[in-house]
Amino acid sequence: MNIKKARGFLGLAGAVAGAVGAFSGFRAAREKKDKLALANAIASIAVAITGAAMAVRALRKDELA
After folding, report:
1. In a 10 Å sphere around its CB, with 0-12 CB exposed, 13-18 middle and 19+ buried, how is residue 31 labelled?
2. What is the pLDDT of residues 4-60, one digit of tens each?
3. Phi, psi (rounded to 5 degrees) for 34
4. Which segments cross the bilayer (predicted)?
5. pTM for the whole structure
6. Among candidate residues 41, 1, 50, the one with its CA nearest the CA of residue 22
7. Exposed, middle or buried by CB within 10 Å (0-12, 13-18, 19+), for 20?
8. How far apart are CA 4 and CA 19, in angstroms?
């Protein structure tokens, strides 16, 4: 396994961990009906999705090269 592929997998793992935390925050914000925390959780989910997409793209580029 080369370094680029390892970075891609680590990025994907980080995005998944971030998504888990974001969904947890989302549930807590909905229970408390805290709109600011809910907005923060939604933004965190978007960041996690973007990070995962970038990691997948990096892994695909490595396979094509």
Report:
1. exposed
2. 788 888 888 999 999 999 999 999 999 999 999 999 999 999 999 999 999 898 888
3. -95, 105
4. 38-59
5. 0.79
6. 41
7. exposed
8. 22
